[in-house]
Amino acid sequence: MADILERPQVPARHRVDVEAYYKMAEAGILAHDDRVELIDGEIFDMVPIGSLHGGTTDRFIRLFARAAADGFAHVSVQRPLRLDAMNEPLPDAMLLKPRADDYRGRHPGAADVLLLVEVSDASLSHDPGTKLPLYAKFGVPEVWIVDLCGQAIEVYREPAGGAYARQERLTSGSLVPALVPAAAFDVAALLA
């Protein structure tokens, strides 16, 4: 018995689910304007959005607006994506399947996503290393990671087994979302 008591204890992580995450916000532990996301039960503080990041996100929204106006997709900006009870990331932009209630009844889930966009500068290691496998695991059909430092868009399609079967990195040319062709645009013009 003494051996058990003398063993060094290893710190353990305490994971929270979405319900506890929202209760923390209601209790004021997480402020309304905190930029946080829940990944695998851990709360991540997100880096503040700089002007290049914000402006690039706004360009996407302007480009996606036509697809939304024509009824092909619902545009979502920095809104939670409920993947399961332990995961609620906050992507920069999403094109979602249109819904009559504009997702007022619940946050969108992976099955609602037509295209997900992460704009990355300071978060460049977090987005592909942590979030991309999560999106693949839950079957998000297409993810774009906009590498602001490298002036490129990384395109990920065909999720299978926690990874994407098709990947490409573009610095120019036309980019057409697989499920929303109406949202096509010129990569170099977007990154300029």
Q: In brief, what are we looking at here?
A:
With 192 residues, the chain is of the alpha+beta class. The protein has a single domain (49-191), classed as tt1808, chain A (Alpha-Beta Complex). It contains five helices and ten strands, in the order H-H-E-E-H-E-E-E-H-E-E-E-E-E-H.
Explain what the structure shows:
The chain is α+β, with helices and mostly antiparallel strands and 192 residues long. The protein has one domain (49-191): tt1808, chain A, CATH 3.90.1570. 26% of the residues lie in helices and 27% in strands. It has helices at 2-6, 18-26, 51-69, 126-137, 187-191; strands at 36-39, 42-45, 74-77, 93-96, 113-120, 142-147, 152-160, 163-170, 174-175, 185-186. The protein starts with a helix and ends with a helix.
Report helical residue fraction.
25-40%
- Low-pLDDT parts are none
Mean pLDDT: 91
Global shape: globular
Domains counted in the coordinates: how many? 1
Largest sheet: 6 strands, mixed
- Neighbour order of strands in the largest sheet: 3-4-5-6-7-8
Q: How many E-type strands?
A: 10
Portion of residues in beta strands equals 25-35%
CATH fold-level label: tt1808, chain A
Rg over CA atoms, rounded to whole Å, is 19 Å
- What is the CATH architecture term? Alpha-Beta Complex
Structural class: alpha+beta
List the helices and strands in order: HHEEHEEEHEEEEEH
What is the count of DSSP helices, taking H or I runs of 4+ residues?
5
The H-level CATH homologous superfamily, spelled out, is: tt1808, chain A
Question: Span from first to last CA?
Answer: 67 Å
- Under the CATH scheme, which class? Alpha Beta
